[in-house]
Design brief:
homodimer, mainly alpha, two-stranded antiparallel ribbon, 52% helix, DNA-binding
Amino acid sequence: MPGRRAVANPLALAVLVTLSERPMHPYEMATTMRSYGKERSIKLNYGSLYTVVGNLAKHGLIAAAAASREGRRPERTVYEITDAGRAELEEWMAELIAVPVKEYPQFEAALSELPVLSPGRALELLKDRVAALEQAIADSRAELAGLTGVPRLFLLEAEYHIAMREAELGWVRGLVAEFEDRTFPDLDGWQYVHDRHEWPPQFGPGPEGREPGDPIGYPPPGTGTGREDGGSN
Amino acid sequence: MPGRRAVANPLALAVLVTLSERPMHPYEMATTMRSYGKERSIKLNYGSLYTVVGNLAKHGLIAAAAASREGRRPERTVYEITDAGRAELEEWMAELIAVPVKEYPQFEAALSELPVLSPGRALELLKDRVAALEQAIADSRAELAGLTGVPRLFLLEAEYHIAMREAELGWVRGLVAEFEDRTFPDLDGWQYVHDRHEWPPQFGPGPEGREPGDPIGYPPPGTGTGREDGGSN
DNA sequence: AGCCGTATACTCGTAGCCGGATATACGCCA
DNA sequence: TGGCGTATATCCGGCTACGAGTATACGGCT
């Protein structure tokens, strides 16, 4: 993958899309995006916006069209999308839709560190998450329901978002249930660690019987499927 | 939320966890994390690691314990976690597990821009994604299956990851199906736009009948549920 | 004894991101 | 008509991230 994307930033994508409708100055882009509800799916703040617009211009994907002056307000630069920009937009969208990228959600990171908490505390916190997720989903649904008259085509990202949250909720609920009815297999060893503060026999993050200084080697050496990335952003 | 987290970075969390086991120098932290399979859920690279360790030290969450010199290798600084660090770890984990944060997955962003593509192209790309997701899930499953002997407790993040991917797959499949059997309601209007390059009556991102310069206002004015963030990080 | 490949351990420079500051104009109310 | 709150429009400085580079040591082979 040579060079990668010149400007790789979701906000840049939104700018290209916005400008593919008609030329605009940055501030107007922002308000337009806001009015279209883009802030729900793309992080937008002015600092980034002007940086991104500058970069896009530098790489010839957009171009300054005019420096108009309406009323006696401060001058502003109107940008328009270029042919290169249109091409980039098409290609970029294709990639984003067709190929999933590895991302690092915070909850996944936290889960990988769950053993540092005691089993009891973990259960408690997971139950809190269940409640919070239920609330968040209800809110999103309500918001979505309030947007009557907007074609579904423009609400796909919201539908997707809700679907993902719901899947997460289901998964966490399952885990909570396993903890509560004690079908989760490692609860005793886990508790043991937190009581004595040492690994019990047959338990711990690596294959048993390792020496205190060994590399622990989750993946039994030689399993190396070493793939699973595909180039982050 | 005053001050927010001093060092807010998943890698910092991993460092705290790693040091809560025993003191280490940065390079050893990295290899330890790698051997535990942490790179699957947390982005790790040396540049960030040393920055993060420096910051943690600056904020008193970890402290340099000794500058040992083993053999005649370059000197290295061994860090240990402090009490403040242990407290921060506990609190941070609690927050990460209990309260979901708003994140911005790239696919969600792309979905919100899907209308810029033609319906046909979108369908094609979505089908590609389905295939890619199937493959990625199969790979993850295979990898997980290869990790026999590792207690489930240490594989939760992988299980979660697979569950999420699968939910996404299901959702995308559903969308593809709706496109293919033409039950998706907006296909005609969408096609129309791409043929004539103008909005048909009763269609478009905002409530119908708007003037060409109006703010479009997805959310009908006065709906403002204005919440839905929770402070990213 | 000399050489090279690999592991160890860290450093640096560039580039991007973001919050908040800045500066002007407008409109409304007293 | 003076003042203040809000909308318009942009810029800047500091912090963070990260890949690529550096430098040393070890060990095995010839």
